[in-house]
Design a protein that fits this description.
Layout: H1 6-18, H2 21-51, H3 56-83, H4 86-106, H5 110-137, H6 144-172, H7 175-192, E1 228-235, H8 241-258, E2 261-267, E3 274-281, H9 284-292, H10 296-308, E4 316-321, E5 335-338
Antiparallel strand pairs: 1-3, 1-4, 2-3, 4-5
Helix pairs in contact: 2-3, 2-4, 2-5, 2-6, 2-7, 3-5, 4-5, 4-7, 6-7, 8-10
């Protein structure tokens, strides 16, 4: 297999995430958290100077308390996540962080502000670790680095947007107002968990399953040859049509996430038990990558669809190299058939 082109690889990662509702929930909620949570880190020097009327030493105390909370969370987070659901952990992190921000905006006592900063440090690590590990657990091995990279882009993007926004509010109004506004956004982010729930991942279904065997090719082809059209023909009993259509809806999503395009499912108007799945990839290398990205979950889905097939032979699979009609055609043998899909 040749290396995947750089921009094509990025596009594959983006496509997978866009078509993965759970990853979108994780990235979206993390983005909101980081916009709001960076307020304390960004405004802590102003808290020390304007609210606590202190100097560098007070700022050092506040920052040290935040760091101590973060270190403490590193030891506590696993135990908390074992006892509570992911949504409960995130709700606690969001709400306690909001409370810490409000206390920092109100308090004129350095010890109390240090306690609030300590709590904020705990929540910072607790939420970041929960989002980060869940993002990885919901990503198949082939896309995990790209998934982490895209996730981190939104994390640091949220930090950048939040830092600018809260600094602007503090400059236009005051430090306390900016902290209250960030706390309000944090509470709103916690409420989003009531709608956009994040389930605890099992992980087993995302393990790789490389069972596909490439067909024997009888025409001149290289890895860059393409486009490639794959056609799979099924025989489905009328009693199983609803089950088949439901399964094919999931299969369509799986195919497109793994790199297919122009996926269609059609029915023969002469033989209504005959159904044809068809999809395109750009090159023969992309066809191989698509099958190499198969996971245990998608393999189980394929096995279930095969059980609905009523033919005496397995579903008929055909691979076709699309040719330009203006170019010379060898002998018309542009089709490669195979029984394993």
């Amino acid at each position: 297999m040749p290396p995947e082109p750089f921009f094509a690889a990025i596009g594959a990662g983006l496509r997978y995430i866009i078509l993965s509702p759970m990853l979108l929930k994780i990235i979206g909620r993390s983005f909101i958290f980081n916009i709001a949570a960076i307020s304390i880190m960004a405004l802590l020097p102003l808290v020390a100077r304007d609210i606590l009327k202190g100097g560098p030493q007070v700022y050092g105390f506040l920052l040290g308390a935040f760091g101590l909370g973060a270190v403490s969370a590193a030891f506590l987070s696993q135990g908390v996540r074992d006892r509570l659901s992911l949504d409960q952990v995130l709700a606690i992190g969001f709400l306690f962080f909001a409370g810490a921000g409000i206390v920092l905006g109100l308090s004129s006592s350095t010890p109390l502000s240090m306690l609030a900063s300590f709590v904020a440090g705990i929540c910072w690590i607790l939420v970041q670790v929960t989002f980060g590990s869940t993002n990885q657990a919901y990503s198949p091995r082939w896309v995990i680095s790209r998934s982490i990279g895209i996730y981190q882009t939104f994390v640091f993007g949220g930090n950048a947007i939040g830092s600018y926004t809260w600094g602007l509010l503090a400059d236009r109004y005051n430090t306390s107002t900016a902290l209250y506004a960030a706390a309000g956004l944090m509470v709103a982010g916690a409420c989003l968990g009531l709608v956009f729930k994040i389930r605890r991942p099992s992980g087993a279904g995302l393990d790789p399953l490389s069972t596909w065997v490439a067909p024997e090719i009888n025409i001149d082809m290289v890895m860059k040859s393409g486009p490639i059209v794959t056609t799979i023909t099924y025989q489905i009993s009328p009693d199983d049509i609803q089950k088949f259509l439901t399964a094919m809806r999931d299969k369509r999503l799986s195919r497109i996430r793994d790199g297919a395009s122009r996926w269609t499912l059609s029915r023969d108007i002469v033989n209504p038990q005959k159904w044809i799945e068809r999809f395109h990839v750009a090159t023969w290398a992309d066809a191989k990558r698509l099958h190499a990205r198969r996971t245990v979950a998608s393999g189980e889905l394929i096995s279930m669809i095969r059980k609905l097939h009523r033919g005496s032979e397995p579903p008929h699979v055909q691979y076709e190299l699309v040719r330009n009609p203006a170019s010379p055609i060898s002998d018309g043998s542009e089709k490669v058939t195979h029984l394993d899909h």
